[in-house]
Amino acid sequence: MSMLKEFKEFAVKGNVMDMAVGIIVGAAFGKIVSSFVGDVVMPPIGLLLGGVNFTDLAFVLQEAAGDTTAVTLNYGKFAQTVIDFVIVAGAVFVAVKTINSMKKSEEAAPAEPVVEPEPSKEEVLLSEIRDLLKART
């Protein structure tokens, strides 16, 4: 089998395509969450803390001098990233919990009892003949 044909079979399999779609949707969801945290959640929190912009919070380790730029420890950006993570983790948790509860409700649903069809007249007659023959011997 040629390498190209083998790759084509691999790339078109369902689970590879599902994974690719999941990664693309996940990346887009990450951008939405980052925007939500940066543009909706953090400004009110910064306002409550006295008008602080979290992305600007940093410790200056070395001041800028001449052509060298300042060396900073950007803990505000880190805090925003942690909040992004918590929101994404919470959303994934809720999604997985919802999916699991839907699976459990499907499993817990009682299966309809299997109703066996009534035997036909021929089967009843043949059963009676069989029983009579057994009784004779």
TrEMBL record:
Keywords: Cell inner membrane, Cell membrane, Ion channel, Ion transport, Membrane, Transmembrane, Transmembrane helix, Transport. Pfam families: MscL. The keyword Metal-binding does not apply. The chain crosses the membrane at residues 20-38, 78-96. Signal peptide: none annotated. It is found in: Cell inner membrane; Cell membrane. InterPro entries: Mechanosensitive_channel_CS (IPR019823), MS_channel (IPR001185), MSC/AndL (IPR037673), MscL_channel (IPR036019). The keyword Cell inner membrane applies. It is a multi-pass membrane protein. GO terms for molecular function: mechanosensitive monoatomic ion channel activity. It comes from the Bacteria. Its main location: membrane. One of its GO terms (cellular component) is plasma membrane. PANTHER family: LARGE-CONDUCTANCE MECHANOSENSITIVE CHANNEL, MECHANOSENSITIVE CHANNEL MSCL. Homopentamer. Belongs to the MscL family. Channel that opens in response to stretch forces in the membrane lipid bilayer. May participate in the regulation of osmotic pressure changes within the cell. This is Large-conductance mechanosensitive channel.
